[in-house]
Backbone:
């Protein structure tokens, strides 16, 4: 491959992502990284991630009907993820 690819191979960094969580009788426990515009929503700081979660999903904390069956939604949480360039 190219020179840049060779330089980046094996490079990794820790960043933050918002993790969706739900638990209901139909689907069981679900956890996944939230996407925005078909790409993972990734952030350099935990603070940026928490702000994104509150602004996009804060209503879940105030909606008991969404937290109970049949939905079982829980507030997303910030999680640290490792992004690595692989060859």
Residues:
């Amino acid at each position: 491959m190219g020179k840049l690819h060779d330089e980046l191979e094996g490079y990794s960094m820790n960043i933050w992502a918002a993790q969706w969580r739900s638990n209901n009788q139909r689907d069981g426990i679900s956890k996944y990284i939230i996407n925005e515009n078909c790409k993972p929503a990734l952030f350099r700081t935990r603070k940026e991630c928490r702000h994104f979660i509150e602004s996009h999903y804060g209503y879940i904390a105030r909606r008991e009907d969404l937290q109970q069956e049949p939905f079982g939604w829980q507030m997303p949480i910030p999680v640290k993820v490792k992004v690595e360039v692989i060859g």
